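The material for today's practical consists of a large collection of protein records. Backbone structure tokens are a discrete shorthand for how the chain folds in space. An example says more than a description, so a record of this kind follows:
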Amino acid sequence: MMFACIAAQGSPVLKKAIVAVAALSCLSLAACGSSSELAGNVISGGKGPIEVNPDAFSTPVYCPPIQLQTNTYLIMKYERGRDNEPEGLLYQATLSDWARSCTKDSTDQTRIKLGLSGSVTPGPAWKGGEVVLPIRVAVITGAGDEKPLISELLTVPVTIGAGAPAENWTLIEDKFVVPRDQEMKVVFGFDEGRRR
């Protein structure tokens, strides 16, 4: 009311200034009740709180390298007394692909998941049945001259018929848990029979 009386008596410029001040005062009073909401929306971008996974800031899990032992990728099994005779070959097994991944098992331990694969090809003397492939997996320290931290003999059964084509096999094992505080490597390969 007071602004209206002053505006009626003053100049046009003064009238405009008073109207502008009155409008700003009204806006300020209207915003008082919601200033915290407005500030919250500006700060958060209009969305609720963001969930942050604490693992995003943790150090990467150490995953030791893997290595095929020298001359352990092939088994050639012959009939008794017919070694190296092509007609006496029962089967030939190969270990051709491998991979590993690691996950944090506890504060100071790493779990290694190892995947191995290959094939078994029956020879002329194969009459059908099951082949059991023995695979040795060992975890050794960087020096390599100490006793292995882990040494496991794993077996992979493969069934092939007489005259059948090659049969692929796969082994996935994740039971290897090792300490995270030392250098090491995983070595593997076939563990018996003729190797080339």
